[in-house]
Amino acid sequence: MSPSKSILNRSRALLSQYTRPASFTARPLLSQCHGRFSSHSPMAPVGPNLRKKVTLNSLRTLYKKGEPITVLTAHDFPSGHVADAAGMDIVLVGDSLAMVAMGMEDTSEVLLEEMILHCRSVSRAAKTSFVIGDLPMGSYEIAPEQALESAIRFVKEGRVHGVKLEGGIEMAPTIKKITSAGIPVLAHIGLTPQRQNALGGFRVQGKTSAGALKVLEDALAVQEAGCFAMVVEAVPQEVATLITKKLRIPTIGIGAGNGCSGQVLVQVDMTGNFPPGRFIPKFVKKYGDVWSESMRAIEAYRDETKSRAYPAPEHTYPISKDELAEFERILDGKNA
Ligand code: KIV
């Protein structure tokens, strides 16, 4: 056999160890199959160590017990994965995606298709949290029918469990339409960032008695329309607390103090995954310093690659002395 043919045969043999035969079908490991896989138990937990799936019922139970509901944004598979693994009750694919994951100036730029794509990634990761997708500006305001069409796409293509939309009284018919089709809606009142131009920027809402009454009217209207909970953004703590007490569904606060029924934060903000000096809103608590840790790791990789300290022997694959000698003999023959 010619040297090049024998090399080819050996490479094929080696490759076959790593490729699956055409007949291969992936089967879940037995240890991953503890859930009841039937069409009537789609919410069953799928592994021995996984918590039970969060559902509207379990969220209601938390609310009734007075246990705060934890909500965090995620915009891709890794951020969805860690939020789910850390036990978030709700993972929100917020349209803050526009700025924090796509580098856009504000949320008005992000498209329905882009939101759906990111919802698909997060939903694949978040196996136990209740996943909500944020309807982007332009995908729901024209008519309740338009909103329902968008919401259905979020569920069918984005694989989310429910949708969020911004607005109060004026959005009540839209919320009714979507929830009547069996899609849970998380409302969003107070500061509604998609309307920042009309609101004169990111302004705290409900700072006067008239303003506070308007937030309450919005809250009662979206509750009546059938949403399962509402985000209350940038409202004085006392106002948000009083409004929460007037409702029979949960409020999820962001910049609204700790009298709400739960809290939501943007993941990149609270994990500190941004360069030093960036503005973050007053209500954000930085629980980590992901930027510094990533920077430290990437700089170390850069330095070790430049100095050839990486890869070290333990990062390489072995070859037997005989095979190496044979390879070198073949190469010498080729050079002769
Ligand atoms: O888009 C988003 O991330 C949000 C939350 C901050 C509530 O709307």
UniProtKB/TrEMBL annotation:
Keywords: Pantothenate biosynthesis, Transferase. Its EC number is 2.1.2.11. It holds the Pfam family Pantoate_transf. It is an enzyme of class 2 (transferase). It catalyses: (6R)-5,10-methylene-5,6,7,8-tetrahydrofolate + 3-methyl-2-oxobutanoate + H2O = 2-dehydropantoate + (6S)-5,6,7,8-tetrahydrofolate. One of its GO terms (molecular function) is 3-methyl-2-oxobutanoate hydroxymethyltransferase activity. The keyword Transferase applies. GO terms for biological process: pantothenate biosynthetic process. Pathway: Cofactor biosynthesis; (R)-pantothenate biosynthesis; (R)-pantoate from 3-methyl-2-oxobutanoate: step 1/2. Belongs to the PanB family. Catalyzes the reversible reaction in which hydroxymethyl group from 5,10-methylenetetrahydrofolate is transferred onto alpha-ketoisovalerate to form ketopantoate. HAMAP family: PanB. This is 3-methyl-2-oxobutanoate hydroxymethyltransferase.
